[in-house]
């Protein structure tokens, strides 16, 4: 499996997305090329340089389950794109601060 990390900080964590409940979900890519494409999309969206790191399947899944981290296995027949980072609610000029 392949995960996406910050370049130069591969041992310090991995990129994850938020699900509909606001919880982090770690993307585990089966195919390295898919992970590289996704990392490229992140960088095109002004993320810092990303790296694709290979991790043994059983190790990463076991670690996720041990620390109660959600994960999603992205197979070659799935298309995932980075979520929109813009939050139109917070940019509403009529919204008052609490």
What can you tell me about this protein's structure?
This protein has helices at residues 32-44, 57-66, and strands at residues 2-6, 16-18, 24-29, 50-54, 70-74. The chain has one domain (2-74). A three-stranded mixed beta sheet has the order 2-3-5. The chain has a two-stranded antiparallel ribbon with strand order 1-4. Helices cover 23% and strands 24% of the residues. The longest helix has 13 residues, at 32-44. It is of the alpha+beta class and 98 residues long.
Please outline the helices and strands.
Blueprint: E1 2-6, E2 16-18, E3 24-29, H1 32-44, E4 50-54, H2 57-66, E5 70-74
Parallel strand pairs: 3-5
Antiparallel strand pairs: 1-4, 2-3
* Total number of beta strands: 5
Mean of residue pLDDT values: 84
Spatially, the strands of the biggest sheet line up as 2-3-5
Quick one: overall form? globular
Cα gyration radius (Å): 15 Å
The H-and-E topology, N to C, reads as EEEHEHE
Structural classification = alpha+beta
Which spans of ≥5 residues are poorly predicted at pLDDT below 50? 86-98
| Proportion in β-strands | 15-25%
Distance between the termini: 44 Å
Helix content: 10-25%
Number of helical elements: 2
Biggest pleated sheet = 3 strands, mixed
Number of domains: 1
